[in-house]
Design brief:
The complex is a heterodimer of chains A (205) and B (254). Chain A is an alpha/beta fold and 205 residues long. Helix content of chain A is 26%, strand content 29%. In chain A, a hairpin with a 3-residue loop joins strand 11 and strand 12 (169-176). Chain A is globular. The termini of chain A are close together. Chain B has one domain: Aldolase class I (TIM Barrel, Alpha-Beta Barrel). The longest helix of chain B has 13 residues, at 60-72. In chain B, helix 1 runs parallel beside helix 2. By secondary structure, chain B is α/β, with parallel strands linked by helices. In chain B, strands 1-4-5-6-7-10-11-12 form an eight-stranded parallel β-barrel, surrounded by seven helices. The radius of gyration of chain B is 17 Å and the shape is globular. The chains are: A alpha/beta (205), B alpha/beta (254). Chain A binds chain B through residues 11-12, 14-15, 18-19, 22, 47-49, 111, 114-122, 138, 140, 142, 144-146, 165-166, 185, 187-191, 193-194, and chain B through 1-4, 6, 41, 46, 71-72, 75-77, 94-95, 97, 99, 119-125, 167-168, 196-198, 221-222, 251, 253-254.
């Protein structure tokens, strides 16, 4: 299997590449529409500011090929910002539309908790999850973000397979047909993160 | 459940080798950074920090290579710092595989550096390291490896740093560093009360009780230590078992 990592200039592409290599899976970085069109499995490893990701998608003309690819059933995994980009919009940059594949919007976590929400947290499964096979409620994942999709924001709750709580309950894992998204960083989440990535790769195969 | 308290081993390097010494005097070799990183990754460390304490300009490429080798061993987050003075310096460190950059003296000299880094990489990637020394009625910010006073109040500097864009504070007690007498609890309390970002406490750790104290009384989000882990005086797994028994939430099993 060959995984295509959408490389819009964020820092963690190499980390994801290394995490995949530890699972004996090779990946290549895509920076052009043609490379995205040729992908059989897509991962969008976002980190940093929402605006940087959305602007890069539009400036490099990657939005349309990415949407075509996802709409045609190609397995897709969005990590952190890569999950947030699936929604309609984000409070972090209100004028920049998201990919609008999933209803709902990204908001800032309440300041009653420390921000960024940074460190290892557990997640609460809501239903059977293909990504969570072999992972228990006691397993921790590494989060590093200030924005998230709050459960109270509505959207299609059926797509939410796990939530996390930090001052508010928000989406930790989303599954919608061929679309998968995680708010945490599986590439930085030790053995539990590796298991989740392996589950995604098995589903994508 | 909530966020786990993080245990963070710190690798002080001269660019290529892990070194240790008190107050930068009489540095001794303490091992290969990548070898230690692999060990801590598998023993349950929650994050790793690698610092270039020499931060000599001409040895920069060596340190970037060290970051690459360390990052290759890790499935946990990595912070790197030492001598980061510009956006360009930070970019090279992040490209080498670090998830966060740690800045200290350069931010004191030019606080706008924090805003620049935060705008480019996000606040979650910017760690402001503060070396603090007690002076009669407050803590002074120390710079250049803890040698010189910046004549600034550490608590208000932490607040300013966060307002400028730092997403995390690493506070080291210069008074406790190297003493193995435990973390500076009043300093840690003062910093955690002043800011709404995660705080990493550093300086003085030896016993598992010191960690329980800094989490429960100091309200630190993470605690850092170096030589006790390098020397095998304290295993990370053993430390986490102790903390769990003390009802401190940690990532365990790991």
């Amino acid at each position: 299997m060959n995984v295509t990592l959408l490389d819009y200039g964020a820092g963690n592409v190499v980390s994801v590449q290394r995490a995949l290599r530890r699972l004996d899976v090779e990946s290549e970085r895509a920076t052009t529409p043609a490379q995205i069109a040729a992908a059989s499995v897509l991962v969008l490893p976002g980190v940093g500011h929402y605006a940087a990701l959305i602007r890069a998608l539009d400036e490099q003309s990657l939005r349309t090929p990415l949407l075509d690819k996802i709409n045609s059933g190609t397995p897709f995994l969005g990590i952190c910002l890569g999950l947030q980009a699936l929604f309609e919009s984000s409070e972090e940059a209100r004028d920049l539309p998201g990919l609008q594949l999933i209803p709902g919007s990204v908001t800032m976590l309440p300041a009653s908790g420390k921000l960024p929400h940074m460190g290892w947290n557990t997640i609460t499964p809501r239903c059977e999850s293909r990504l969570l096979e072999g992972i228990s409620q006691n397993d921790y994942f590494y989060f590093a973000h200030s924005y998230a999709v709050a459960m109270s924001a509505g959207g299609n709750a059926d797509d939410v397979v796990a939530t996390c709580h930090h001052a508010a309950e928000f989406i930790a894992i989303l599954e919608h047909d061929n679309i998968f998204g995680v708010q945490f960083h599986p590439e930085k989440s030790g053995a539990s993160g590796a298991r989740l990535l392996a589950n995604f790769l098995r589903l994508a195969a | 459940m909530s966020l786990a308290h993080r245990i963070i081993p710190c690798l002080d390097t001269d660019g290529s080798r892990v070194v240790k010494g008190v107050n930068f005097v009489g540095l001794r070799d303490a091992g290969d950074p990548a070898t230690l990183a692999a060990r801590y990754n598998s023993e349950g460390a929650d994050e790793l920090i690698v610092l270039d304490i020499a931060a000599a300009r001409d040895r920069r490429p060596t340190f970037l290579e060290t970051i690459q080798k360390v990052a290759a061993e890790l499935a946990i987050p990595l912070s790197a710092g030492g001598g980061i003075r510009s956006l360009e310096d930070a970019r090279s460190v992040i490209r080498a595989g670090a998830d966060k950059v740690t800045v200290n003296t350069a931010a004191v000299e030019r606080p706008a550096l924090l805003s620049e880094l935060s705008a480019e990489f996000g606040a979650q990637a910017v760690v402001l390291a503060i070396d603090a020394k007690f002076m009669e009625d407050h803590w002074d910010v120390m710079v250049r490896g803890g040698r010189d006073s910046a004549a600034m109040d550490a608590v208000s500097w932490a607040r300013t740093g966060v307002a400028r864009g730092a997403g995390e504070i690493l506070v080291t007690s210069v008074d406790r560093d190297g003493t193995q007498r435990g973390f500076d609890i009043p300093l840690t309390v003062a910093i955690t009360a002043a800011v709404n970002v995660p705080v990493i406490a550093s300086g003085g750790a030896k016993l598992p009780e010191h960690f329980a104290e800094v989490f429960q009384q100091g309200r630190a989000d993470a605690a850092l230590a170096a030589s006790i882990f390098h020397d095998g005086v304290q295993s990370i797994r053993g430390l986490k078992e102790f903390l769990r028994a003390q009802k401190v939430e940690v990532r365990y099993p790991c």
